[in-house]
């Protein structure tokens, strides 16, 4: 693909999934492995794949999409392997930023809070869940995908050209409490 389109200069790793809703003590090993493979290993392998191309052109940007679950526990939502995979993604971001900065490759993470998605739809669909989200989000509005996209565009573009190794939290103030 690099031959036809030119070398990749931007990689956005935006996959994420919870493969079980079991509590940590009961989480099946298979679900833990699936979660780690998709949420942590795949972004690492994709970063490794684009690295030679970015190094060759002397620049590049990688933006990983994590979650506030990698920074704080969320009561009532069992997600041990998901949280571990997303915390690991922020750690991977920091390490790649340190190793690849000398090649002018920037690596950052966006950590969204609660937005309507496949993972969070049950929360938004119940009155109890929606009230829980309103009560725990400081800003008096619902987050949108556009807020996440805006942070990604900022980090990938010229405006974020002096930012690397960071996790930018986009959560309406959820983790500020």
Structural class: alpha/beta
CATH domain class = Alpha Beta
Basic shape: globular
CATH architecture: 3-Layer(aba) Sandwich
CATH superfamily: NAD(P)-binding Rossmann-like Domain
Strand content: 5-15%
Helical fraction: 40-55%
Would you tell me which CATH topology applies? Answer: Rossmann fold
According to DSSP, the number of beta strands is 4
Uncertain residue ranges: none
Radius of gyration: 17 Å
Annotation field: number of helices = 6
N-to-C SSE series?
A: HEHEHEHHHE
Biggest beta-sheet profile: 4 strands, parallel
Mean pLDDT: 92
Q: Separation of termini?
A: 45 Å
Enumerate the strands of the largest sheet in spatial order, edge to edge or round the barrel: 1-2-3-4
Number of domains: 1
Give a quick precis of the structure.
By secondary structure, the protein is an alpha/beta fold. 46% of the residues lie in helices and 12% in strands.
């Amino acid at each position: 693909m690099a031959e036809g389109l030119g070398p990749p200069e931007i990689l956005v790793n935006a996959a994420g999934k919870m493969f079980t809703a079991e509590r940590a003590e009961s989480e099946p090993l298979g679900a833990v492995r699936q979660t780690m493979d998709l949420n942590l290993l795949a972004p690492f392998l994709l970063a490794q794949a684009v690295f030679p191309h970015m190094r060759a052109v002397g620049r590049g940007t990688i933006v990983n999409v994590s979650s506030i679950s990698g920074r704080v526990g969320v009561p009532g939502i069992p997600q041990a392997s998901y949280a571990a995979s997303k915390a690991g993604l922020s750690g991977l971001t920091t390490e790649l930023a340190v190793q690849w900065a000398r090649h002018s490759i920037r690596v950052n993470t966006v950590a969204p809070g609660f937005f309507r998605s496949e993972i969070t739809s049950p929360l938004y669909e119940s009155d109890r869940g929606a009230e829980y989200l309103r009560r725990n989000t400081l800003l008096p509005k619902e987050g949108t995908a556009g807020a996440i996209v805006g942070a990604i565009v900022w980090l990938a573009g010229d405006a974020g050209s002096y930012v690397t190794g960071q996790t930018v939290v986009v959560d309406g103030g959820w983790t500020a409490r």
